[in-house]
Amino acid sequence: MKSITLTPDLFHQHREVTRRYFMQLGAAGAAAMGGRALFANEAEKANDAKLIAEAAADLEYLTVAEEFGTVERGNPLPYKLPLAKRLEVGLERKTWKLDLMADPKSNAQLGNPLTRAAGNALDFPTLMKLAEKHAVKFLKVISCLNMSKPLGMGLWEGVPLREVLWLTQPKENVRRVFFYGHHNEDPKQMFRGSLPIGRVLEDPPGDLPVILCYKLNGKWLSGKRGGPVRMIIPETYGFKNVKWLKTVMLTNEPFANDTYARGNNDVDTWMKSMARFIYLPRREKAGVPVAVTGMAQVGVGGVKKVQVAVLPRGKKWPANDPYMTQAPWRDAQLLPAPTHWGGELKDGKLPSGVSNFTDTGQPKHWPQRYTLAHWATLLKGLKPGDYDVFCRTIDDKGIAQPLPRPFKKSGRNAISKAELTVEK
Fold first, then answer.
1. Selecting from 1.10.3470.10, 3.10.450.50, 3.90.420.10, 1.10.940.10, what CATH number does the domain 66-263 have?
2. Where are the domains of the chain?
3. Could you report the per-residue pLDDT of 126-142, keeping only the tens digit for each?
């Protein structure tokens, strides 16, 4: 069978969990024989497991750092500057420094600003000293607000931004945090993000801290991935997670200053839940079960289940049901967490101390918000013809994608569609 190419940057991911799960199903079917003749339903289960295991054979979970999809800006790109220049401007760990200061355009007051000009800017050794006590690690998917598929899934490590902000001794008139990265000393290239100060100082229930990130999948953050230090904000889309971080300002301004606001984007939106296909054959013979695998981006609303619907190709859907609520949806199998995580981790194992995991490396719950999860199903009994296949998520409140927030400016999560032809 030949797979459809829907998400090129992600199709090298998500491997072991799907394969292991369905191979176990196949083994269970075989064990049920108990030396007796294989009953029809047992043979069918074993064959189903084999089909889906084959479909998932090229999948993995964590994205290798250099295989992330990349959205970047800068001319020249900061990480492609000559080494001497990167050292000069602080884009290597040995020379990196971070200004933490009051916004000069507001009346925010700090008792101890940390700046290059004063000679006391935060450097990498100081950040690592803070990391000895405060470092956190967590899983997060990077997804673009205006793209239909995630860019990659990573294990990120860093120091909570609040631990650094307290070093500046903030006093009063602080409502937001502004931040931006290296921009080649060209104001037109500056890429900015911001957050309410409350989000930085206190995590909402069940959420993780905003971090100054220096590692991805256990390795130092490369320049291509935004190193030596970038912002990672668990619940946000990629544009908030500013790369090549150089400046953090505390301000009394009440409004966001994000670069993305200029493009009519919702800069304060939380990540949405959505399902996407990973494997689906373009063609299959009639009478052959069609193995389908996919991934679900778990947004702020969580993911309770994934569903799939099959309709004749090009069937016009009623205009009074724009979100396909009346389509013939049926549940797919939402898979458990992997035991082999990939992403170049040693032996495919998560390190100790990952947030929302036990000391033995087991997730405290699954799927986890702001990560990816796997799903799989078999399509059976399809007659010869051309079909459109759809997938969607159902969140923890029972709300089906693309609701409750179907607007593009708050992140794309339209129902995904792929084509399938069943031949005689």
1. 3.90.420.10
2. 66-263, 272-423
3. 999 999 999 999 999 99
